[in-house]
Amino acid sequence: MNILVIEDDQAIREMICLSLQQADYQTFSCQDVKAAKQMIAQYQPDCLVVDWMLPDSTGVELLRWLRRQQKYKHIPALMLTARAQEQDKITGLDSGADDYMTKPLSLREMQSRIKALLRRPASYIESTHELKSGPITINSDSHRVTIHETDVDLSKTEFLLLKFFVSNENKVFSRNQILDHVWGVNAYLDDRTVDVHILRLRKILKQFQLEQMVKTIRGSGYRFSSKIE
């Protein structure tokens, strides 16, 4: 699970990240709203930890923006603040926070609250959107993948890669195009990253004799097709 921590106090930010890493979460962090929006787009985190007061705006405004975005509005968020008045809590929750903690923090309590948020069904899903290709079904909202009606466990990147292919069946994409669409245009990664993840995806598909759905197009890149030749 990936957690994005948005906190302008470096000491607090590092303390939170270390605590979450010790609980086996992967963390990313930044100190302002502008960077937060970029990192949300790049990493598509599973949960946010958001400070109320940030240098360029507020956590409240960031969450209001988040809940307006179809792609990200389901991401749970824990708001942190020194504000302890009831009206402040109401404002934070009404802005889109799923939970609220006041400083100074109990790190163990924070871990428990985040764990609880990640167990919840997404509160902002309005409809179920499914993609299908042959025996593969992808639920974009629940991040559930089934093959021949069997649940398949994919990492976030494997899920995004498979979703991209199914959404663009029979089209040829270069490695750089796949990098831009799946990892984001600001991801500074070697195009060999694509080969490694496609190798992993094929290994998963091979369990169902479907590895040939991902085809290598010599000199061009990759193409996904439900028609196995």
Helix-strand layout with pairing:
Layout: E1 2-6, H1 10-22, E2 26-30, H2 33-43, E3 47-51, H3 59-67, E4 77-81, H4 86-95, E5 99-102, H5 107-119, E6 130-133, E7 136-139, E8 144-147, E9 150-152, H6 156-167, E10 172-173, H7 175-183, H8 192-206, E11 214-217, E12 221-224
Parallel strand pairs: 1-2, 1-3, 3-4, 4-5
Antiparallel strand pairs: 6-7, 7-8, 8-9, 10-12, 11-12
Helix pairs in contact: 6-7, 6-8, 7-8
Task: Provide tags for this entry.
single chain; 229 residues; alpha/beta; Rossmann fold; Arc Repressor Mutant, subunit A; 2 domains; five-stranded parallel sheet; four-stranded antiparallel sheet; 40% helix; elongated
CATH topology of the largest domain: Rossmann fold
- Overall mean confidence score, pLDDT: 87
Tally of DSSP β-strands: 12
Q: What is the annotated CATH architecture of the largest domain?
A: 3-Layer(aba) Sandwich
Find the CATH superfamily of the largest domain. Answer: Response regulator
**Sequence of secondary-structure elements:** EHEHEHEHEHEEEEHEHHEE
